[in-house]
Amino acid sequence: MYFILSKLLVIFIYPFTWALAVLIYAVFCKNTRRKQRLLIKGVTLLYLFGNTALIKIFAREWDVSTYPPTGKIYSSVILLGGFVSEGDDKKGIFNQSADRFIQATKLLATHRATHLLFTGGNADIKPGKFREGDFVNNELHKMHYADSAILIDNQARNTIENALFAKKILQKARLKPPFLLVTSAFHMRRALLIFKKAGLDVTPFPADFIVKGDLEWSDLLPSADAFGTWGRYTKEIVGYIVTYFKHI
User: Fold this and answer.
1) Coil, strand, or helix at residue 77?
2) Torsions phi, psi of 25, nearest 5?
3) Residue 57 near residue 101, CB atoms below 8 Å
4) How many Å apart are CA 178 and CA 197, to the nearest integer?
């Protein structure tokens, strides 16, 4: 039930939805004074969440900074899914978050870790046969990594299941913590909280920094991309708060 609700209700936490709702209310509002106030609020929301400056400032505080592993060798990298999408041909394709895969495989290739555990299945409400874990398993075999170094979970639908299923696999493989956790920078803070609650000792190795660069004057101009980026971050904020009070 929690999984289904999280999928259905997510649209209501997007800033664009808030602005749109306020503006639609303004259109049908008959009170002239209230209509004017609603229009001002709607336009203000559009501007605040439609410029890149605000999201850059927020991301600097929210994102977990890059962690360069020292000479320590970890028993396993834990790579979270979300960087593979199902194509029209029902086969997997790397999406815009593929940097997760790149960074995790580099850690394995440079012997920063002896194993790589991937966890991810199909997060659709009504999943078909496609499983992200199966696609990643095939890609790793193409790169000639040893079977003994690869651990795959192809069932997890969200980060909570990522942590719970990963814990079982690591315990079965008798691998000892701490582990390197690889996921997108915007997602890392919530992932760390979930893995901590699941009882897994992990060290963050963020990838896929979607907000970067210094502030520029052009960041104050409206940008459609800013709304999409805020959508990801507001989902993470709400998810973090829910996770904080949720028992795993």
Assistant:
1) strand
2) -60, -40
3) no
4) 15
**How far is the C-alpha of 66 from the C-alpha of 74, rounded, in Å?**
17
Q: Are 184 and 97 in contact (CB under 8 A)?
A: yes
C-alpha distances in Å from residue 217, one per residue of 51, 53, 78, 110, 220: 10, 8, 39, 40, 6
- φ, ψ for residue 238 (rounded to 5)? -65, -45
Which residue's entry shows tokens 């890609």?
A: 139
Q: Supply the pTM of this predicted model.
A: 0.91
CA distances to 4, 7, 146, 151 from 169, rounded to whole Å, are 25, 26, 17, 8
Asked whether 100 and 83 are in contact (CB, 8 A), the reply is yes
Of 190, 171, 194, the C-alpha closest to 75 is 171
Secondary-structure percent of the chain, ordered helix, strand, coil, rounded to 5: 55, 10, 35
Architecture of the domain defined by 77-204: 3-Layer(aba) Sandwich (3.40)
107: CB partners within 8 A, 6+ apart: 69, 74, 77, 113, 116, 180, 182, 205
List, for residues 120-165, the tens digit of each pLDDT value: 999 887 878 899 999 999 999 999 999 999 999 999 999 999 999 9
CA distance 248 to 194: 8
CA distance readout (Å), 104 to 100, 138, 186: 6, 15, 17
Q: What is the pLDDT of residues 4-28, one digit of tens each?
A: 656 666 788 899 999 999 999 999 9
